[in-house]
Amino acid sequence: MHEKITLDMLTQESVSVRAQRYTVIDGVEYEIGEPHRKAYVNSTAGRAAVEAELPEAQRNAIMAVWGDTPTVVESTE
């Protein structure tokens, strides 16, 4: 079993991440279950979540677009 992670709608403010598990039986790839989606915003907390939860390739792609500083201010309420 393996998982494919896709970045959808990657902008300077946010990204939607889709994760889907697959298995290969007799050379044919089959999806397992429903895909999981999670959105991240380019805030301090969102950047920390990306670093903690995603593999290096996806982190690097997101940070290449997001740059070095957050663009979304978190609510203090």
Secondary structure layout plus pairing:
Layout (H helix, E strand, L loop, with lengths): L1 E7 L5 E12 L2 E14 L2 H10 L2 H11 L11
Antiparallel strand pairs: 1-2, 2-3
**How many E-type strands?**
3
Oligomer: single chain
Largest sheet: 3 strands, antiparallel
Structure annotation, total helices: 2
Measured as a percent range, the helix fraction is 25-40%
Could you provide a short overview of the structure?
With 77 residues, this protein is an alpha+beta fold. The protein is built from two helices and three strands, in the order βββαα. It has a three-stranded antiparallel beta sheet.
What do you see in this structure?
This protein is an alpha+beta fold. It is about 25% helix and about 45% strand. It has two helices and three strands. The protein has helices spanning about 45-55, 55-65, and strands at about 1-10, 15-25, 30-40. A three-stranded antiparallel beta sheet has the order 1-2-3. It is elongated. The mean pLDDT is about 95.
Structure characteristics:
77 residues, elongated, single chain, alpha+beta, 43% strand, three-stranded antiparallel sheet, 3 strands, 2 helices
